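Retro notes, item 3 of 5
We never archived the inputs for the flavin-adenine dinucleotide complex last cycle. Fixing that now. Sequence and ligand:
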Amino acid sequence: MNRNQRSSKISNDTVKSLEAIVGKENCLTDPEDLKCYGCDASKYEYLPDAVLLPENAGQIPDVLRLANLEKFPVVPRGAGSGLTGGTLPVYGGVVLSLKRMNRIIDIDEENLTTRVQPGVVTADLQKAVAKRGLFYPPDPSSLAFSTIGGNIASCAGGPRAVKYGVTRDYVIGLQAVLPTGEPIRTGVRTAKGVVGYDLTKLIVGSEGTLAVVTEAVLKLIPQPESRRTLLAAFEDLLAAARTVTRIIKARIIPCALEFMDANAIQCVAQYQNVQLPKSAGAMLLIEVDGAQETVVRHTGDIKRLCLEEGAVEIETAASDADSEKLWNARRAVAPSLFKIKPFQISEDIVVPRSRIPEMVGFLQAIGRRLRLDVVCFGHAGDGNIHVCIMVDPKDSDEMRRVRQAVSEIFDQTIQMGGTLSGEHGVGITKAPYIRKEIDAFGIDVMRRIKAAFDPNNVLNPGKIFPDEASVTGFMQ
Ligand SMILES: Cc1cc2nc3c(=O)[nH]c(=O)nc-3n(C[C@H](O)[C@H](O)[C@H](O)COP(=O)(O)OP(=O)(O)OC[C@H]3O[C@@H](n4cnc5c(N)ncnc54)[C@H](O)[C@@H]3O)c2cc1C
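Structure as it came back at the time:
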């Protein structure tokens, strides 16, 4: 889906200046390299004019100062696993890859914090702190490859968000470079701090449009003593949803409460050699953690509630390896979908938890009405539904029906008191729709914040704001 061959925005002299800042070996301009950094998990492609791989934070201010002088875009990039095109250089310019800045600077066991560079891979951080009996909970399913910088910029969440919250809840301080090239330190290194505006929280989730994160101070918590995973199959989604409500009403907050609809179960069962009850209408993957005796008690209570609500099958993992098998079934949903069609439009709407069955019913009806393959799964515990519509982009009639479906899904989400994105952010793919959720005044306030940080609009332009989004891809 290569559609954006723009004329080069930066001259050879500029490339030479950039080489002088980051070193010749860290400035890439070969077409093959530009192609690698011109796409992400959104499947769109926009080629940059150059790719920079700075080795330290000290090199970044000069890059941004030059960008302001010569008015070329700079687009921060972690692992490129974003699903909304946030790291794509839609107006050309320079992709600033932070992946070489990947050091865990320290793990402070007394103050329960860690200081990391942005290119650290999330799973590597989790493993490093686990060795000291500590826990960094944010767990996007991409944790094996996505970076802390990308997680911060997109405020990544995951299954554990239901109990432990999202990335924002663990970022207490940042070092960053503003779009104008000034380094800034935000937030605190302490457990508390209320001095001035909370710039840390403003930068978290700003999708690389307000600052380049060069270092983060993250909160850690003790590792839970014990953990137990269950998989429960139900005849229909309504029974699964009732179970979720009863678990929460019983004052049990699992550390994961995931659901799959019938289509997702079918896809996984055909894709992977896992024993799933193929005839089930819905499944819940439930994990509890905490002190050993609490985990045992909660596991028993949850099993009872599942059975009372008509669970047709319950599997409890007896070991970590068993638990991993159950999780693999859940993680296999996304890759298994590509067996149906070559591309997926992946939305991550959130509705109030109690309205999940109603929303899934709506999504299934839309699939039938518009003749689309719609698969639903996600985080039942926090109302975050992943809606995947499988498509063949070459089929223009199908694409027209998909656009209609997405627009109707977003309308329904807002009408139910929900939000368009719980995890993936806006990027370019959701930019045309944000007016459905945020009114003109709200968007104007955000634009003014952006202008205050970035008067020349050099940092990741063309993202989030509806009029600026220049998507010319298969959804438009
Ligand atoms: C299989 C799969 C599963 C996924 N599961 C989840 C999930 O469970 N939960 C979830 O939230 N997301 C999920 N995602 C989406 C994605 O992995 C997350 O958004 C992740 O946080 C992106 O990290 P990254 O390092 O790949 O960042 P990138 O994709 O490279 O960039 C994402 C955004 O962050 C900005 N950025 C990156 N680094 C910096 C920096 N240092 N400073 C400033 N801005 C920066 C970029 O400009 C861009 O706007 C999934 C993606 C895939 C492919």
